[in-house]
Structure formats: structure tokens, C-alpha cells
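Bug report (template v2)

What were you trying to do?
Predict the complex of my protein with alpha-D-glucopyranuronic acid.

What happened?
Run completed; filing so the output is reviewed.

Input:
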Amino acid sequence: MASGVLTGSLTQQSAMNHLRLTFALVLAASSVATAHGAPQTWIAKQSVIKANQKKRPGFNFDESKVPSYKLPDPLVSATGKAVTTVQDWKDSQRPAILKLFREHVYGVRPDAHYTVVHKEVGRRENAFGVGATARQIRTTVKSNDKSHSFDFVIVIPNSDAPVPVIVHINNRYLIPIDKTVDEFDPFWPVEKMVRRGYATAAFHTSDVDPDEPGRYADGIRALLDDPGTDQGTRWRCLSSWAWAASRVLDFALEQPEIDSSRTAVAGNSRAGKTALWAGAEDERFALTYSNESGCGGASLSRRAYGENVARITAVFPHWFCERFTSYSGREEALPVDQHQLISLLAPRAVYVGSADEDLWADPKGEYTSLVKAGPVFDLFGLKRIKQPEMPPLNTPRQVGSTGYHIRTGRHNLTEQDWGYFLDFADSIFK
Ligand code: GCU
């Protein structure tokens, strides 16, 4: 402000004007900071920080205690060479980063020979009053005379033109076909999606590979694993669930009503981590939605804010490859961080959601990761979120290929989250 210049030549009248001007400027500044009383950027509430500290003692929820860290640059190769062209990214840098994530975080998928058969086991026509067709499909994977099956439900709206599809990785349950059609579930609000012109399919993670450390023998991994391969880098649940999302996509893409160029994968929490990995491994997914995925998902490992590598690998030893455990308490030694996982999604679209009470998942780490993936979107000439400050609560930010929101409330996937995501999907697909 030029007050120093003004003060030198003040008459009484101009002193009054100056006072008025100063007052007006102060008012204007405060209304920028708190339009309608709402802050312009989200920061964790003290009461929420305290509640998280009480619930999870021994973990960091204090922003001032985040260690200083340096993130690997997604556009610098392992040998220090700058990646400056899309061709370089596609030919060498992307495969190199993908390999690091396979070998250090999510594990390497087995190179097994298998066949897949999809069988319809349930069907409902004219659903939701919009002529949607719901089908329950049993997917049977066979390998070496053994097999493993899991079900999914797919609902396709009636439409003259091919429609986009959202594959939802459901970490809670399989909603059987009748329940899908007859009962509303905000965790997978099918009617909402169908009415907005989207087909959607969902399966339950544990049906693919049980979400329990001791149940390896009962899942898809036991069917496909080669016992001769390196234990340290072998895939585990998250990767097997992501693989299953691709099998559901295979089926969806065989349906003439589905538009193969408009496909999304979505998940919450552990399934949000899985959705990101599914999008990284399978480039047929045009859009990835990760909701409150936290540690090992969208949030930066190096911040070690909320859940950290030591805790997640100790409590969920069946999620990541064994080698990931070796980074417990030494996140800075990881050859990758999670912004590079998001960068693997470029030039496709990505949406990240957080909740303000869910500090365990580190909303700031999730947002920052999305921003730090940005240079790869820039390389493709795409628009993307650049602002380092987070948006305010319940105010989604959509910029080109990237979108983000943080909503009020607890760790969960709600109708509000889906609504924000669908708005973003509309902007990408329509
Ligand atoms: C636990 C876990 C998280 C995970 C969440 C969930 O809270 O620590 O990493 O995202 O479960 O999947 O619900």
C-alpha cells in the first residue's frame, strides 16, 4: 500500500480521506480472507487435530512437525537426465517410475497364464424408472486346473449413444443385484450415476482376495502366483484388487452400450489406494478417482503425517509388497513418492477427495501430491491445479485434467463426494 507516500503531504481533509481509504482497504483485505466468514483455504481445525492426537497417540498431526523433505522430480530420470518430451516420458521415464512402484510399493504382478469366463447370474430390466439394465456377473479365473470366482454388479442406463462407465472398487461389501436396484446406498449411489448418464460396476475387494493377512490361500493371488518369484517384490492385496478392476473393465468394454474412451475407476480409502494403482497399471482407465486414500494412496509418504509406512505395513502386512515395509521410519529413502503415482495417470484425468476430520489420511499430503504431479501434465500441454494452497471446505477445485475437494466430516465415501466427482467426470467426458 502507498500509505508512506500519502502521509508526507496530508492536509486535514486529505487526512480524513486517507483514513477512509485505509479503512476501506482493510475491509477489502479482510473480506478476501474471510468471504462470508469462510476461510479461503482449508487448514485443519485445532479441535480436530486434538481429537486425532487423542485417538492415535504417537502419530504426527502437527503441521510444524512434518519433517523437511525433498520429493523426487517426476521429470528427472534415475541418472539425473531431464525429461523434456512426451516421447521420453512415454518411452523411458513412465516405465521406469512404474517399475519402481511395482518393485518397492505395490508388488509385481505374476506372469501367469489364465483364462477368464464371465457368466450372468442375475438380471433386472427397467431399473430406476429410466430403463436401466442391472446384471450380476460371476467372473471365474482359471489357471492350472484351479479356479477362483468373484461377482460384480453392472448397471447400464438406457441410451441411444454409448455411455461412460465407472468401475467402483468397493472395500466394504458386494451389493447383490436386488439390493442394488431396490435400496439406495450412498457408498455406491447407482441411481444417481445412472440418472446422470453413467454406467457403473462394482465388486467387493475381499471376494477377489480376502482382506486378512492369514487368508492368502483363499484368494486370486494363490491361484496366479509363481512360488519361484522374489518374495520381497511379489504383489499383494492392493495390486490383486486393482487387477480385478481391470477384469471388470474387460467385461464392460465388451458391451456395445459402453464408450471405451470414457472409463473411470474409483475407490475409497484402501480402495482409493487401489484405484490409483489400477489407473497406473491399466491405461484404459481414462479417469481415476481416489477418495481419502491417505498413506500408500494419494498422500505423500515423506510427510509422515497421520498414518505412516511403519504403521500401515505392520497393521496391514497383506496390502503392499514386502519390500515396502523396509521403508518404515525412513520414508526419505523411498525411490518414489506418491505424487509420482499420480503423474503416471497423465495425460488422463485424476480426481482426489479428502475429508476435514480425516487427518489420518493427511488431506494436505493428498492435495500437495496432486499439485506435485503437475509437471507431467504440463509436459502434455494440459491444464491442471497449480495453486499450493488448498481450496476451502466443500468448494471443489477443477482445473483441466485434475480435480480436488475437501468436504466437512469424517472418513467415508458419501453422496456429496460422488456428486463432486461426477461434476468433474462430466467436465472430462462431456
Ligand atoms: C485404516 C488404514 C487406512 C485405510 C483405511 C480404510 O484406517 O489405516 O490406510 O485407508 O483403514 O481402508 O478404511
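What did the reviewer find?
Residues 171, 269-270, 294-295, 307, 312, 360 surround alpha-D-glucopyranuronic acid (CB under 6 Å). The chain has 15 helices and ten strands.
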